[in-house]
């Protein structure tokens, strides 16, 4: 079995609704997402000979999602007042509403599912909120 890893980072704001502590406040992270994919066999011909997948393709697919999530507010749907949402939208701030609390754990699963849907044999995804705090999801 071979395993390949790549990572990509993005900067965004979030808050943890219902959290008693500083993380209930709007704050930012430079999130780093690490994806590990596996494969039993290497490509036999052509451009990708000797590779499980081309790192370039893997990184491009991961970046598509991290770029979409860059410089925005990532929040759990329904956790801000309607008038707050209207004000943010009026300011044309970019907002990504998720059906779950934007913790490192939930984001790790979110990226796992995104890469699996792209066709990769995903082994695990790890989301770093800070260089010392990370959560990993594996199926
Ligand atoms: N299991 C989890 N715990 C926490 C998460 C999480 O996603 N999963 N998230 C947070 C907050 O988002 C918070 O930003 C992290 O705070 P903290 O651990 O305090 O990190 P700091 O780097 O700011 O810590 P300092 O030691 O104060 O510098 C909370 N918990
Ligand atoms: Zn945080």
From TrEMBL:
Q: Which GO terms describe its molecular function?
A: 6-carboxytetrahydropterin synthase activity
Q: Which cofactor does it need?
A: Zn(2+)
Substrates-to-products reaction catalysed: 7,8-dihydroneopterin 3'-triphosphate + H2O = 6-carboxy-5,6,7,8-tetrahydropterin + triphosphate + acetaldehyde + 2 H(+)
Q: State the source organism's domain of life.
A: Bacteria
User: What EC number(s) is this enzyme filed under?
Assistant: 4.-.-.-
Pathway as given in its UniProt record: Purine metabolism; 7-cyano-7-deazaguanine biosynthesis
Q: How is the cofactor bound?
A: Binds 1 zinc ion per subunit.
Q: What keywords would UniProt list here?
A: Lyase, Metal-binding, Queuosine biosynthesis, Zinc
Family matches, as Pfam families: PTPS (PF01242)
What does the sequence similarity comment in the record state about its family? Answer: Belongs to the PTPS family. QueD subfamily.
Tell me the protein's name: 6-carboxy-5,6,7,8-tetrahydropterin synthase
């Amino acid at each position: 079995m071979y395993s390949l890893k790549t990572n990509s980072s993005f900067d965004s704001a979030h808050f943890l609704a219902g959290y008693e502590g500083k993380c209930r406040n709007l704050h930012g992270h430079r999130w780093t997402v690490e994806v590990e994919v596996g494969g039993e066999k290497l490509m036999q011909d052509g451009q990708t000979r000797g590779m499980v997948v081309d790192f370039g393709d893997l990184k491009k697919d991961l970046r598509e999602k991290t770029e979409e999530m860059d410089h925005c507010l990532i929040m759990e749907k329904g956790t801000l007042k309607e008038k707050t949402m209207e004000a943010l939208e009026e300011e044309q701030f970019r907002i990504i509403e998720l059906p779950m609390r934007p913790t490192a754990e939930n984001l790790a699963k979110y990226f796992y599912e995104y890469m699996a849907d792209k066709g990769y044999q995903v082994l695990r995804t790890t989301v770093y909120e800070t260089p010392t705090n990370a959560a990993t999801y594996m199926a």
